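> example.struct
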C-alpha cells in the first residue's frame, strides 16, 4: 500500500472519515458542533486569526477522535477479550480526545470573551 498516487491515498483517508461518521456517535456530534461553530463564525465574521485558531482546534479534535477510533478498532480486532494493557491503550486514546476537546473549549471561551469585550 505504500507509494500510492495521491488520489488513491486521499480516497483511503476519506474512507476513514466516512467509516468514523457511520460508526462513531461522538464523531458525528463533533462534526455537528463544528458546523454550528463555523456558521457562527460566518455570521460574526471575526478576524482571520480566530478562523485559524478555531480551525486548528476543530482539526485537533477530529484528528484525536479518528486516531482513537482507529486504535479501538485495531485493538478490538486483534484482541477482542478484555485485557488491562489494551484497556490502558484505549483509555489513553480517549484521554487524547478529551484533552483536544478541552483545548477547543478554551479557544471557544477566548473567542466569546473577545466578542463580549
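> example.seq
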Amino acid at each position: 500500500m505504500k507509494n500510492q498516487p495521491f488520489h488513491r491515498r486521499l480516497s483511503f483517508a476519506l474512507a476513514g472519515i466516512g467509516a468514523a461518521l457511520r460508526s462513531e456517535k461522538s464523531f458525528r456530534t463533533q462534526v455537528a458542533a463544528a458546523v454550528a461553530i463555523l456558521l457562527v463564525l460566518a455570521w460574526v465574521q471575526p478576524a482571520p486569526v480566530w478562523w485559524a485558531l478555531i480551525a486548528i482546534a476543530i482539526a485537533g479534535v477530529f484528528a484525536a477522535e479518528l486516531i482513537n477510533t482507529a486504535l479501538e478498532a485495531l485493538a478490538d480486532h486483534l484482541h477482542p477479550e478484555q485485557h488491562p494493557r489494551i484497556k490502558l491503550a484505549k483509555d489513553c486514546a480517549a484521554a487524547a480526545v478529551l484533552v483536544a476537546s478541552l483545548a477547543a473549549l478554551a479557544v471557544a471561551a477566548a473567542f466569546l470573551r473577545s466578542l463580549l469585550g
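> remarks
The radius of gyration is 17 Å.
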